[in-house]
Amino acid sequence: MENWDEIRTAYQVARLGTVSGAAEVLGVHHATVIRHIDALEKRLGVKLFQRHARGYTPTESGRDLLAVAQTTEEQFAHLVSRIKGQGETVSGELVVTSISGIGDLLTPVMVGFQDKFPDVRVRFLTDMRVFRLDYGEAHIAIRAGNGPEEPDNVVQPLTRMKAALYASRAYVDRYGRPASEAEFAGHRFVCTDAEVTRAPFHRWLRATVQPDQIAYAATEATALEQAVRHGAGIGFMMSFRASEDPDLIEILPARAEWESQLRIVTHVDLHRTRKVQAFLAHLKDAAKDWKSCA
Known about the structure:
By secondary structure, the protein is an alpha/beta fold.
C-alpha cells in the first residue's frame, strides 16, 4: 500500500460510522474522505463498506483491513507517547496505570502533581490486564506483588499494604463473630472471583474456607469492599480504609503473610526523563504519609 492516508481515512470512517465524523477528526473536507474510500476500494478490488442512510458499515473485507489499521494506529500512538516522554519539560500527557482499589490513595497524589506542574495532563488507567510499558501504553505503573517483570523495566518498592479480615455489624448481629479460623464453619465470605490472584490474602482465604462458603465473589476491589460493608459476608479490606468505618468489626487482625507489596514500574527508556522523575519523587514523598497503610 503506497497511500497510508487512505487506510487511515477508512479506519476513521469505520470507527465513527460516518463520513462527516471522519472528516472532522482528520481535519479534511468530506469530499476528501469519500475520494479516499473510493480510491482504496478501487485499488483493492473489493467493497470495504456498505453505504446506507445512517452512515457506513464495514464489510467482512473492510473489518479485516481495519483490524490491521487499528493496530497500526495504536502502535503509532504508543510511539508518540514514548517520544513525548523523552522531553526535558514537565508537561504534556502523563499516563499512570495501577491495580484497582487504590484510586483514593493515588488520585490526590496526581492532582497534587498537577498543582506543581499545571501543564501536565493526567490519564489514570486501571484494568484487569497488565499495561505494556515497552509499547508506551503508560509512563508509570503501580503494581502489586513480586511477580516477574520485563528485563527493560525498572522496579522500585513503594509501600506495603496491610490487610485484615472484617465484617459489618449487621453481619455479626445476624451470624455471630468467629474468634479464629477454627470457628469459620457456617460463616459466609466475600472473595475475589479469580481463582488465580496475586493478592496473598485472597489466596489464603480460598485455601482456608470451603468453596460453597464464598457467598459473594467479584473481580472489582471496590465491589468486594462494598459487599463486606453491606453484610454479604466476612472479607478482606485494606486496614487503613476499614479503620475509618465504625460500622466494620475486625474479625482477624492483619498478618504479615497477607501484606501486599506495591511497586513502581517504569520502562528504562522513560525512567530518566524529567517528567517521570518529577512524578516519582512526588509519589515517593506522598507515600511517606501513608503511615496507616504499612
